[in-house]
Please model this.
Amino acid sequence: MPEQIIEPGTLAARGDRVRLSVRMPWYRALPLSSVADVRWTVDGAQVPHDSITWTVDGRTHRLDDLPARHDLWWYVLDSAELEGDLPALDDRAEHQVSVTLSLYIPYITTDLGVLRIEEKDAKTMPLTVTRKGGAT
Amino acid sequence: MTAPGTPVQGVTLYSFTRAFHGRRYTFEELVREVARRGLGPGLELVGFQSIKGFPDVDPGFVTRFRSLIDETGLVPTCLSANADAGLRRDRMLTDDELVDYMRPQIAVARELGFPVVRVQISLTPDDMERLLPVAEQYGVRLGLEIHSHQHPRHPRIQALLERYEKLGSPLLGFVPDWGASLRAVPSTLLRKYREAGYDEDLLTGLEELWREHHAEGPPMTEPQHGRWFGQVVELAHRHGAGDRAIEMAVNITGLFGHAPASDWADVLPWAVHTHGKFYEIDADGDEPSVPVRELIGLWVGSGYSGAISSEWEGFHWNDWDDPFEVVAGEQALIRASAAASGSRVIVDPAEARRLVGLPGGRNI
Model:
């Protein structure tokens, strides 16, 4: 269900940071250690990988910190909020957003290791801008 | 001669993944909808799907779930647990860790009133033997799911069967999943790929590979399955579908199994629950990709009177059919097939409860 990854209307900028809500393209809760990679672009420009944070259940993690967190879970109904450095954007009302999520599926193991799937979604949506220090 | 079995009709909420994930139905609303439409009486859940925090389930949820069961008259049949051997990134879980990982999931089944816990292939015969006292403690049966690309004759399943026969406990068994016995690639998947713009040569190639694998028979070794997987990946790349290659390989070699229906005969005496996996119902009410009539003939003939959860997995790609209607379609096919086999399917909750039972262990 890759088309359910990006939540419509959730692209928002505040100061030099950009946010987006994403859903899991799988049917059951997964440990945060299952999140193998996140690639995120806005108008074709990469949100820098090192700048991306991942928030579920009110806890924020750097992407590099996720592999060790097999003790925390991403529930199927919960959105994960991505935040990262805002790339230079085109000046237009609607923006092209793409997210590729790579997930390990912890109960499907083969001789090649744990199954890793990659699902991509792309949507067009407006950007909500909030001034830094302003209400969100 | 074995008396004909009377399987219990039911459904797993997994069939409604798209509606639940899309937040169109809450968990409680889904359960009520299943009851309202008569898709029970059997009810199965995937713990990690339906319950946030699973297997750490708070007492409030247990109370609410039990009232929901009383209110709807549904009959809990199976709680699907997961054997997440690949939980960690640095290494696989050890056998000790995996056995400990299963324990709370089994305990929750008892609390929620499920008589059967579905477990998965990462568990070895030794692990199952070590889980037997846990099953005894909580009074539930453990069914290891036989899911494509495994199948009844697969060496790992045969090793489990041998151990079950040695231990002779009614609390250890299997959950056969009909996805191990397909007869064709589901047409809805090909339709979806076609709509996504993939060329006809790729679609024909996928079907041809599937038929070649079918002629080879269900895979007996991991390298054999790995070779098939690689063939699909290579085919997808050759047709410019590299970005969907893994998904196509998972579908073609992982979901659509090749076991002849008759292969199930060995393990059916050990079946504690069944996943009536299906993908589509055609205009004649048949399932073109899963031989439901033949499977039901075998199930009934073997004396199987456990639950069959209709498990619609077409939702992965099929976003146009109503999941409640396709489940009703498979259940009608199952009922007609049982009648054609000289038996019937149980839809009465009291009869269903008597057949699938309740958890009933000691010292709780």
